Each structure stands twice: as C-alpha cells, then as structure tokens.
Please model this.
Amino acid sequence: VMRLENITMTYGEGNSRVDALKNINLEIPNKSFLTISGPSGSGKSTMLNILGLLTKPTAGSIYLGDKKLVLDDFDKMSDYRLFNIGFIFQSFNLVPVLNAKENVMLPLMIRQDIDEKEKADRVEMLLLEVGLKDHILKKPDELSGGQKQRVAIARALVGKPTIVLADEPTANLDSENSENIIDIMQKMNRDHKVAFIFSTHDPRVVKHALQKVELKDGEILK
Amino acid sequence: VMRLENITMTYGEGNSRVDALKNINLEIPNKSFLTISGPSGSGKSTMLNILGLLTKPTAGSIYLGDKKLVLDDFDKMSDYRLFNIGFIFQSFNLVPVLNAKENVMLPLMIRQDIDEKEKADRVEMLLLEVGLKDHILKKPDELSGGQKQRVAIARALVGKPTIVLADEPTANLDSENSENIIDIMQKMNRDHKVAFIFSTHDPRVVKHALQKVELKDGEILK
Ligand SMILES: Nc1ncnc2c1ncn2[C@@H]1O[C@H](COP(=O)(O)OP(=O)(O)OP(=O)(O)O)[C@@H](O)[C@H]1O
Ligand SMILES: Nc1ncnc2c1ncn2[C@@H]1O[C@H](COP(=O)(O)OP(=O)(O)OP(=O)(O)O)[C@@H](O)[C@H]1O
Ligand SMILES: [Mg+2]
Ligand SMILES: [Mg+2]
Model:
C-alpha cells in the first residue's frame, strides 16, 4: 500500500510560480488498477513522478505500508525504485544509442539477483508480447512512435516490479495494440498482484480501472 | 491538389530491410480534411513525412497541381515547405532552449513577406487559442506533454500554410483540448481553405474527417 499525505508540488517562483499539485491525499492499495485523468496541465505526470520517487514534493509525506519514506535519502529512493517500480514515461525516454533489446535489458543490467539466462529470456518474452519480435535490433530513431512506446512498456515490466506507473502508455497506439497492452497489464495485476497507476486520457484504459481519480488544477475532484 | 503516384519507401537493406510504404497512390484535394489511420508501424508517419517533402521516397512521384516535383532539388523543397506546409510532428520537435513564444515564432523568422507586428500578433493569437496564454515564457522541459503538443500545433499554424500535416496531434490531449484543437482546424479548413491531413488513432478526429484512408503494412486498404 502506498499513501500520499498532504502532497504539494510547486515549480518556479514569483510570476512563474506554478502550483502543480495542491495538498494531495491519496491511498493506493496493493493490486491497484488506478487511472488518473484530467485536463492537460492538471498535474497527472507530476503526481506519477512523485509516486515513482523521481520528483521530491515541495511538501508532504509518502508512506510505503506504515513506513514513512525519508525523501531526502535519494540513494535509498533509487534502490527501492530499481527493485519495485516500473515507469513508462510520457516521452518514452529510450536511450538513442541502444537498440530495442538493449533498452529493455537496461533495468536488469545492475540486478545481481537474476541470472543472465533469465534476463535474456525476460527481454525476449516481453518484446514478443508487445509485438516487436521483428524490431529488436532497431534503434529508437528507426522505430515508429507506437513502437517506441511499446519498447518503453516492455522496459517498465522487465524487472517484475510491484508497482508500475504508466504515463499515457497508449497515447500512440491503435486500438488493437492498446487492447493487447491493457491485457498484459491486467494479467500481471490479477495473477502477480502488480499495482498499476495510469495517467491517461484514453477511455479504453479508464474503462478497465478499478479506481478512478480525477485531477483538476492540481487538486483531486471529489 | 497534391498527388502521390506509385510511392514506395524502403528503409535499410538485407535482413533489416523494411518496406514502410508499397506503391501508394493517393490524391489529396484542396480543402482536404483527411485522416490516415492504421496499426502502429503501418506507415502513417512515413506517408506524412513524404507528403511534407521531409523524406525523399525510394521510388514514385509527387505532383502539386499538374506540376511534377523534382524531388532531388531539396532547396526548392525547403522553400515550398516554408511557405506552404505546416507540420505537427509526432514527437513535437520543439527547440529545448527556446520558450513557447519563441518556438512558435521560429517559422516566421525568415519570412520577409510578413511585418514584425503581424508576426508578434499571430504568435500571441495562436498561443491564446490553444489555451497557453499563461505559459508563453516556459521552455519545453517546463511544460506538460499536452502543453508541448499544443505549442507544436500553434507553430504549425502560425505561417498560415495551405497544407497542414498533423501526426497524432491529439495523442496527449484530454477531450476538451482535443475538441478545441479540432475546432480551430475545421474553421481554418472551411474559412481559409487550408488542407488538413492527419495521422491519427483518435476517433474524436476521425469522426470529423471528410476523407478517410486506412493503412496496413505500408499499403492503402480499399
Ligand atoms: N529510419 C528508419 N529506419 C528503419 N525503419 C524505419 C525507419 N523509420 C520507420 N521505420 C519503420 O517503418 C515502419 C513504418 O513506420 P511509421 O513511423 O511510418 O509507422 P506509423 O504508422 O507512423 O506507426 P505509429 O502509429 O506507431 O506511429 C515501421 O515498421 C518502422 O519500424
Ligand atoms: N519543470 C517544470 N517547471 C515549471 N512548471 C512545470 C514543470 N513541470 C510541469 N510544470 C507545470 O505544472 C503543471 C502540471 O504539469 P503536468 O506535466 O503534471 O501535467 P499533466 O496533467 O501531466 O498534463 P498533460 O496531460 O498535458 O501531460 C503544468 O501547468 C506544467 O506547465
Ligand atoms: Mg502528462
Ligand atoms: Mg507514427
């Protein structure tokens, strides 16, 4: 269970000050399948980045189970992230000099708890599942938008995380690929208790949500 | 009127060869409001890049009116592009060191046929229309995904082009912003005879199409 308590995020100051999130309180149960929707600029990505321990909030606390996280201790953050959190970025963030296979392998490189054969199998399996079997040697600039998105999805799942934070994961996908991705995620949610938190405008995703959050101007709508 | 005749686009060779477009024939009337849909990887962006004279096809001809374009003459291409074509890229392609206002101004910088005041007015007007009035001084990394997308849209329209090629222009937008963008484009289409060609998965856009093209594996489905 993850809990956000009085989370505030402010960017800039003076005239350029933006209150991206205002006093957010949210509980995220294990096995969540939760969507965060809301207008462009309402704070969805910011909330995901905070849940993913990528951005330190301006104020407020984050709890994992009963344990309050010491947010200043970013080394601890990065260990926790590596083993527990899979993140699909809104802009994919693939490494341009690595091909699809290498991009998906990346989170496993520093994992010593998984043997090499297991790593290779997982990478191959996921790229097959997202329909990129014929594209594994291609670099990002040789891939279509939706193919890049699917590499980003495979990369987020390869570490078998306990929480996946997915920022608009179907924005560049046609219906068939979207349904397939949502399928994969629902199976992981049901069978492996992986929590999924989506930022999404996509009704095809919201349709499957067990829990729906609406954001507007940095606040959760009741 | 723009016409693609026997257009073929092949990337790579040998094992890595991809036939992205195969023998495409397509006529695009003035005042088009045309959508190109199809699975991820089916060739939509490639087709837009060729229509936008950004990518030289492997084979085939492009006609503007009756005039067959000499595709090797890329200087001629870039002049024509500057004055006639507005392009919204799937990955936005904003200049990171410029703020929103400067990014939208960019296509007008080398236009000597428009006076400075007119340029400034157009930029301000468009950023207002796409709902970014309060964000004009922000750089891309300070903008949300959908805000970046709206800057890219404003930039494509600021030169008053005769053809706008829009690659997934609503992928990162919520319904309200999408409807607004589609509105702006329909007005330009009706009142100013601007042709719009969309690559899109978004039913909200396809709904308004006057002409619909389906791509599959680089070919147009009849
Ligand atoms: N520079 C390149 N080198 C090699 N292959 C490429 C290159 N660019 C595109 N491709 C391939 O060409 C095919 C068509 O790509 P394109 O980007 O046109 O698809 P798309 O329909 O826009 O897909 P999406 O909906 O995912 O954006 C894809 O299989 C892609 O991998
Ligand atoms: N680094 C930053 N500096 C300044 N302002 C920022 C920064 N990052 C985000 N913002 C602002 O904070 C607000 C929330 O941004 P966020 O990316 O969370 O929105 P979003 O809901 O994900 O939007 P979208 O649906 O367009 O992706 C926006 O108004 C944005 O301009
Ligand atoms: Mg976002
Ligand atoms: Mg594309």
In short: Chain B has a mean pLDDT of 95. Chain B touches chain A at residues 11-12, 16, 37-41, 44-45, 90-91, 131, 135, 137-138, 142, 144-147, 149-150, 167-168, 171-177, 201 (CB under 8 Å).
